[in-house]
Design brief:
Blueprint lengths: L1 E6 L2 E3 L5 E9 L6 E7 L6 E7 L4 E3 L7 E5 L4 E6 L8 E9 L2 E4 L3 E5 L2
Parallel strand pairs: 2-11
Antiparallel strand pairs: 1-3, 3-8, 4-5, 4-9, 5-6, 7-8, 9-10, 9-11
């Protein structure tokens, strides 16, 4: 089992920045993929950014150049969000995949509004 705890959401004005953090605990393996997904009201959950244990990253086109995913160990991943737009408003979920299984965090609300 793996537990994911997210932090760092909140309300920010357009053009502002936020950083989300996700810490994994439990049965942690060094081969993994961790990512951030988001779901806005009435929309499907979508991938925002992901990073593997080897450091390979990928981003949704809508956030390229504005968001950066990073990690400091096998347990913690961050999402630095800059130049935020109202359309970035959503619940952001942390996800971890390892050994053929997938786990989700509880979600962090990000609201971009003036």
């Amino acid at each position: 089992q793996v537990q994911l705890v997210e932090s760092g959401g909140g309300l920010v004005q357009p053009g502002g920045s936020l950083r989300l953090s996700c810490r994994a605990s439990g049965n942690i393996f060094s081969i993994y993929r961790m990512g951030w997904y988001r779901q806005a009201p009435g929309k499907q959950r979508e991938l925002v950014a992901a990073i593997t244990g080897g450091g390979i990253t990928n981003y949704a086109d809508s956030v390229k150049g504005r968001f950066t995913i990073s990690r400091d160990n096998a347990k913690t991943v961050y999402l630095q969000m800059n130049s935020l737009k109202p359309e970035d408003t959503a619940v952001y979920y942390c996800n971890r995949e390892q050994e053929g299984s997938s786990w989700w965090g509880q979600g962090a609300q990000v609201t971009v509004s003036s």
